[in-house]
Write a structure and sequence with these properties.
about 575 residues; TIM Barrel; seven-stranded mixed beta sheet; elongated; 3 domains; alpha+beta
């Protein structure tokens, strides 16, 4: 019996051995770690002198270049993440950076930068500096800036990694809080969480990593040399939250500001001829609390071939205004004579000529400030307009002139006015808080509803303009609307004319809580007439909102359109 059992047991044993031989490798394979490695050049999608950029802990789509050991960032990358004050003039092939008292210019493909301090009389003062590398160059239509040059003007720090592997650049621009950990022992960093995922790189015992996302058994980490992948949690220790800095001290330049300690109460005075300067006394006869008047004196004309201003200023007007206790901020505008604004502002010579003409005209007239009212700035002209304001601010501050700039409220894609930059380099940012509905509108509506006014102020503050630099413009006019057979027209009238229309036609006014205005309408001859009144009540609500946001003051368009009763509440606002 035993002899018969032995062959059976042997057969069973052989079957087990065969089964183990077949199964064990599969078991081992299932639980073994993959040794496959990822090609980092393919992973980072760059090769040669290209470098991927890790901003804080995010891998950017942007590429940098490495030339002669120097790192060069794309101009757009610099503007988006590091410093947006660099100004590139493509046609002149120069990069400019404007400091509080001078403009630094770097020509492409050179390592020489020139600092120029503008002067009204005589030659501008310039000096040169030779740098270790080319400051900027253009390649395939893309502008690149040397990283060390960018560092001169922002708190950015960077480190270059790679060489045999693809280049990576770690960039830090701000302080933040991150989770870090120490690697216990050498381990592989894998593309995904899982032992079968291919290896991106290796970390050694003692390496510090940033923990981006910690799961139960795997953690997403970033290595010091900018590789983001996954490692088993068991390899990590001393996990903690730390405050991370850029590792580089930097002091922002301080742009000077001329600031008034009191609230600004300003009104624009339309002056279309030299003779019209004589109307100062009549348009200010009923005012109270007014402390700044802005006559429309400087009319820009010309274009790429030359620029000038039609100057109708009057020194005796300034003297009379000063006697009345008003400062005079002379307005410069771009609408009446239809200048080629792009042609002027996009050329250094034309732009600087206009800047000096404006300041000289202001000084000759004895005014206290300049009010820039350029309302035709196109999107492609926006960068040149911003540079114009930077350069102009140097001259105005040198000569004790207040620089204020009129702006549409920040809605409808008007980013070309660069409000945040204005909030740094000019003294007062003036919002034209009206024309919510204007002459060309396809539907009738309020000139300045309270929601429109408040959004304009709030959004400007959120953009980055300090509240104490914002002046909000209010309308002294109302539009009377007519809708007839689908055709919408309107006429702008002063406050008294609007009241007369309401009284003459017996229109009943009702307070509208949405616009915070008295609203009235009537139907006549098949047409619907509508009016949202600008009056003492609507203005009071606007002034209350301005007080809530603690902005710098109020301005009004335009003198002569108001009723006398509004000055009492304006004066009270100025004293509040």
């Amino acid at each position: 019996m035993k002899k018969k059992l032995i062959p059976v047991l042997v057969a069973i044993a052989l079957i087990c051995v065969v089964a183990l031989v077949a199964v064990v490798p599969k078991i081992l394979d299932r639980y073994s770690y993959s040794k496959e490695r990822v090609d980092l050049t393919e992973y980072f999608e760059c090769e040669g002198d290209e470098a991927r950029i890790m901003h804080q802990d995010s891998l950017l789509a942007d590429r940098a270049l490495v030339r002669d050991g120097a790192v060069y960032f794309q101009y757009d990358t610099v503007a988006a993440y590091m410093e947006d004050r660099f100004y590139y003039n493509e046609s002149e092939r120069v990069v400019k950076y404007t400091l509080p008292d001078c403009v630094e210019t770097a020509a492409l493909d050179t390592n020489v930068v020139v600092r120029t301090a503008p002067a009204l009389a005589g030659d501008d003062i310039s000096n040169e500096e030779t740098l270790a590398h080319v400051t900027a160059f253009e390649e395939e239509g893309t502008l690149y800036l040397w990283a060390d040059y960018v560092q001169r003007y922002c708190g950015m720090s960077y480190t270059l990694y790679g060489g045999e592997e693809p280049y990576r650049v770690q960039v830090f621009t701000e302080e933040d809080t991150v989770n870090t950990a120490i690697v216990k022992k050498a381990a592989a960093v894998r593309r995904l969480g899982g032992i079968k995922s291919p290896i991106l790189t290796d970390v050694a015992a003692g390496d510090e990593v940033v923990v981006l996302n910690r799961m139960e058994t795997w953690a997403e980490i970033k290595t010091k040399d900018c590789v983001t992948g996954y490692i088993e949690v068991k390899y990590l220790e001393n996990e903690q939250e730390v405050q991370r800095t850029t590792g580089r001290e930097y002091t922002e330049p301080v742009y000077p500001r001329i600031e008034r300690e009191h609230k600004i109460v300003m009104a624009w005075h339309p002056v279309m001829s030299v003779d019209a300067n004589s109307t100062l006394d009549s348009v200010t006869a009923n005012t109270a609390g007014l402390n700044v008047i802005s006559p429309t004196w400087f009319y820009v004309t010309g274009g790429a071939d030359g620029v000038s201003i039609n100057n109708i200023s009057d020194a005796s007007y300034v003297a009379r205004a000063h006697e009345k206790g008003y400062e005079v901020w002379a307005l410069a505008e771009d609408m009446t004579l239809s200048p080629d604004l792009y042609g002027i502002l996009s050329q250094t010579a034309m732009r600087e000529t206009l800047e000096k003409q404006l300041v000289n005209a202001a000084l000759n007239a004895g005014v206290d400030g300049i009010n820039i009212d350029f309302e035709t700035v196109s999107k492609d002209c926006g960068v040149h307009f911003a540079q114009f304001l930077r350069e102009l601010s140097i001259l105005t501050h040198q000569n004790g002139l207040v620089l204020s700039v009129d702006n549409y409220v920040p809605e409808g894609g008007r980013g070309q006015y660069h409000l945040e930059e204005q909030g740094i380099v000019v003294d007062y940012v003036v919002l034209m808080g009206y024309d919510e509905h204007w002459a060309g509108c396809s539907e009738a509506g309020s000139v300045a509803s309270i929601g429109f006014v408040e959004r304009g102020i709030r959004d400007t503050i959120e953009i980055g303009v300090p509240a104490d630099r914002i002046i909000n413009g209010v309308p002294f006019f109302t539009r009377i609307w007519s809708t007839n057979g689908g055709e919408v027209t309107s006429s702008a009238v002063g406050m008294q004319a609007a009241k007369d229309w309401v009284n003459n036609y017996g229109v009943e006014l009702v307070w509208d809580e949405i616009t915070c205005q008295n609203y009235g309408e009537l139907t006549s001859g098949g047409a619907l007439y509508q009016v949202w009144m600008e009056d003492q009540e609507s203005l009071q609500v606007k002034l209350n909102v301005m007080n809530t946001y603690q902005i710098a003051g109020v301005s009004a368009w335009r003198l002569g359109y108001e009723t006398a009763d509004i000055w009492a509440i304006i004066a009270a606002y100025g004293n509040s």
